[in-house]
Amino acid sequence: EGRATALAAVKFVKSSNQMRVAFVHNTDNPGLISKAVEAAVHHMEPAAAATFIGKILKEDTALKLEAGSKKIVDYDIPGVEMAQFQQQMQELSEDTFKVHRLYAGKTLKVNLGECAVITNGRKVGPLAPGEELTSNDFELLEKLMMSQYGDKLVQAFHNHLDVNREDISNIALVAGGLLTSRTSAKARQELAYRSDDHSVIKIEPRFPDRPAFDLVAIVDPISRGAQKITPVLLVLQKVLNARIRVFLNPTEKHSDMPNKSYFRVVLEPSLQFNEQGELLPGPRAAFHNIPEQPILTLNYHVPDNWLVEPVKSIYDLDNIKLESIDTGVTSEWELGALLLEGHCFEAGSGNPPRGLQLNLGTRASPNMTDTIVMANLGYFQLKADPGVW
C-alpha cells in the first residue's frame, strides 16, 4: 500500500505546479526500494528523481528489483550517472532511516509500518490495510488546500516575497502548516426541530444503506424563492442519494398578494429518450390552471451570459390573454450562444489595448468568431457554444 500511495503522489506531482512530495520511510527494515528513493531525492534533480522514482515504484518493477532480476544501473535517466548513483545508495547511513522512524512515531503519531499522508500540517490517515490513495485523491487534496489558504498564500508571496529564492517552498510549507492548524470558523450547521411531524417535509434517500447527502432547505412557501428551489430539490433527489428536509418558514402577515407570477424550472435529471431510443427534443415547462383574465407575459430567467430567444410561437408572448385563446399557448426557445466576457490590459502600462482583435476557435477552425477590445475598461465579448475552444 505504501508503494502504491507513493507512486500516485509522484504521478500527480509531475502534472502539478503547486505541489512537491517528500518521503518518510516508516519501516523497520528499509530495503532496496527505500534506499533508491531516498538517494534519488537527495542526489538527483527534481525532474530526474520524479522519473526514476515513478519507474521503480511500479509493482512489477519493484518485485524484479527485490528479486535481483533487474538492476538499478539498468535504468537510463537523462543527466544521471547510474553507477555513481548506486554508490551513493550504498553510502546511505542507517541513521537516516532511524530518524525517519522516530519522526513518524513521535511527531506524526504513526505506528511503525503504517501509511499516512501529511499535507501542510494536516494528516490523512493512517490508512487502513488494503487502502490506497490514487492520483485523483491527491488532486482533490491539492484543490482542498488551495481553496483554504493556498491561493491567498500564492498571491501574498508574489506581492511581498521573491518567489525565485531557493527556500520559498519551505517558507510556504511552514506558513501553510500554521494556517491549517487554526480551527475553522465555519462549523457544520445542524437543524433540529422538535415538532417536525407537520411543519417539515422529509424525503428519505433512495438507497438508505448507502452514504447520503443531507440537504436542508428553509423556505417561505409562497415566495419566489420557494418556486425556484422546489423543482431543483426534486431533481437533486433523483440524481443524488440525498436525504432532503424542507422547513416551512412563512411570513406571519401580508398586506398584499405575495406572489403574482408563475414559475417553472426547465430541468431534467438526465437525458430523455422515446420508445425507439431517439433523443427527445428537450425539457419543457408546462403551466396549468392559471387565471385566464389577466394579461400575462412569458419571460425567462437564465444566466447573464446565455443568449436565449424564442424561435417558434404564433402568439405575442408579451401580451397573452388566455380567455381569448382556445388551444393554449406554446413556444420554443433556443440557447443561441454562450457569451464569453472579460477585460484585458497591457502588461507594461496597464492601459486597455483598444482595437486589439481577439479570435475564438478550435484547432480545426481557429477563426470561428472574433471581436475587438473596447477602450472602456478593456472589455470584450465573444459568442461561443458549449465545448472546448
List the helices and strands and how they pair.
Elements: H1 2-15, H2 32-43, H3 46-56, H4 59-67, H5 82-90, H6 94-107, E1 117-119, E2 122-124, H7 135-160, H8 168-180, E3 200-203, E4 213-219, H9 224-239, E5 242-248, E6 306-312, E7 332-343, E8 357-360, E9 369-372, E10 379-384
Helix pairs in contact: 1-3, 1-7, 2-3, 2-5, 7-8
Give a description of the structure.
The chain has helices at residues 2-15, 32-43, 46-56, 59-67, 82-90, 94-107, 135-160, 168-180, 224-239; strands at residues 117-119, 122-124, 200-203, 213-219, 242-248, 306-312, 332-343, 357-360, 369-372, 379-384. The chain is an alpha+beta fold. The strands form 4 sheets. It has a 3-stranded mixed beta sheet, with helices on one face. Strands 6-7-10 form a 3-stranded antiparallel beta sheet, with no helix packed on it. Strands 1-2 form a two-stranded antiparallel sheet. Helix 9 (224-239) links the parallel strand 4 (213-219) and strand 5. Helix 1 (2-15) runs antiparallel to helix 3, helix 2 crosses helix 5 and helix 7 (135-160) crosses helix 8 (168-180). The longest helix has 26 residues, at 135-160. 10% of the residues are buried.
